[in-house]
Amino acid sequence: MSHLLSDYDYTLPEELIAQRPLPRREDSRMMVLHRKTQQIEHRQFKDLGTFLRDGDLLVLNNARVFAARRFSDDGAIEFLFLEKVGQGHWRCLVKPGRKMRVGASCQVNGSEARVAEVLPDGSRVIAVETDIALEDGGTVPLPPYMRRPADEQDRDRYQTVFADVPGAVAAPTAGLHFTAEMLATLPHTFVTLHVGAGTFQPVKADSIAQHQMHAERYAISAQAADEINSALRIVAVGTTSVRVLESARRSDGKLIAQDGSTDIFIYPPARIEHADVLLTNFHLPRSTLLMLVSAFAGREFVLHAYEEAIRERYRFYSYGDCMLIL
C-alpha cells in the first residue's frame, strides 16, 4: 500500500465546486458504493432510508459552527477565532501574520486585541481587552474554496439542523443533507467533534505517514455510548463521526462516555473498526479526509468513484452531493 501523497490526487473542474447549497437540503444526489461487488449506483439522498435495515444506528456529529471569522475595525487584519484558552485569551489564525507579531495590537469592535504569543503552528494567542461575543459581529468561516464572503444564508445552511454544541469552525458537512423531518424517521444518536481549522490544512509531506493532524475536542455521552454499543450496524455520518468512534474505541470494541482530544489520522492500510457504513461528501484531492475514506473503501475504488462523479457532474465539497459507502 503506497503512502505517496500523489496517490491521493485527482483533477476537479472548478465549476463542480458547489458555491451555494441547493434550495432544499434533501435534494442532494447520493452516489452509492458497494464495497463487496465494487458496483456504483446513482441515487438521491432522500433514498437513504431504503439502504438501512433493522438494528442500524446513524451516528451524527452535533457540533455547531460558531461565527469565528471577524476583522479589525479598520478591516486590515482578519481573525479566525479557534478556541478560548483562558479568560480574555483566544487562539486565533491571523492574516496577514507579518503585521501581528508579539506585542502588536489592533482594535476589534472598539476594544484592543493584542498578540500575547505566537505558537509553533503559526497561530496566535490573542489577548482581548473586552471578551469577544462571536455571534455578535462575527461571520461563519466558510472554507477557502468558496471564494466569497459568508452571508445570511450561510448562517443557516452552513449548519446542520441538529447542530447543538458550539465550538466548531467548520461544519460536519455530511450532516448538511438531513432535514429535521427526515431525521425523525431514522434511528440515530449524536457524538460531538469540534472541527478545527486543521481540517483545511494541506498535507505537505510526500509520504503521508509523516503528516501530523491537529488535535480536536470530542465528547460521547453515556446515552450515545449505550446506543452505539447496542446497535447491530453503525452508519457513521461523516468523517468526523468516524474519527470520534475510532478514537474512543476500547480494546474490547466498546465505547464509554468520555470527553477527550484526538489527533487520529486514518489512512490506508488502517482498518476502520467501529463504522460499518459511511455517509460522506466528496473531499479535496490530497486531503486527510479523502485518505480516511480510502481506508474505509479502498483507494482505487474511491478514486474510480470520484472519476465517475466528475463524469456525472456531481457537486463537490461542503455544499455538494454525497456518497453512501456500504
Protein described:
The chain is α/β, with parallel strands linked by helices. It folds into 2 domains: 246 residues, QueA-like, CATH 3.40.1780.10; 60 residues, Thrombin, subunit H, CATH 2.40.10. Helices cover 16% and strands 28% of the residues. It contains 6 helices and 17 strands. The strands form 3 sheets. Strands 2-1-17-16-14-3-12-13-15 form a 9-stranded mixed sheet. The protein has a 6-stranded antiparallel sheet with strand order 5-6-7-10-9-8, with no helix packed on it. A two-stranded parallel ribbon has the order 4-11. Helix 5 crosses helix 6. It is globular and about 60 Å long. The two termini are 22 Å apart.
Keywords:
326 residues; alpha/beta; Thrombin, subunit H; 9-stranded mixed beta sheet; 6-stranded antiparallel beta sheet; 6 helices; 17 strands; globular
Q: What order do the helices and strands come in, and which of them pair?
A:
Elements: E1 29-34, E2 39-44, E3 56-61, E4 63-65, E5 69-71, E6 78-86, E7 89-95, E8 105-108, E9 111-118, E10 124-128, H1 152-157, E11 165-168, H2 180-183, E12 188-193, E13 216-220, H3 222-230, E14 233-237, H4 239-248, E15 258-262, E16 277-281, H5 288-297, H6 299-311, E17 322-325
Parallel strand pairs: 1-17, 3-12, 3-14, 4-11, 14-16
Antiparallel strand pairs: 1-2, 5-6, 6-7, 7-10, 8-9, 9-10, 12-13, 13-15, 16-17
Q: Kindly identify the CATH topology of the largest domain.
A: QueA-like
Number of helices: 6
Q: How far apart are the first and last residues' alpha carbons, in Å?
A: 22 Å
Topology as H/E string?
Answer: EEEEEEEEEEHEHEEHEHEEHHE
Biggest sheet: strand arrangement: 2-1-17-16-14-3-12-13-15
Please give the share of residues in helix: 10-25%
Q: Over all CA atoms, what is the radius of gyration?
A: 20 Å
Beta-strand level of the residues, as a percent range? 25-35%
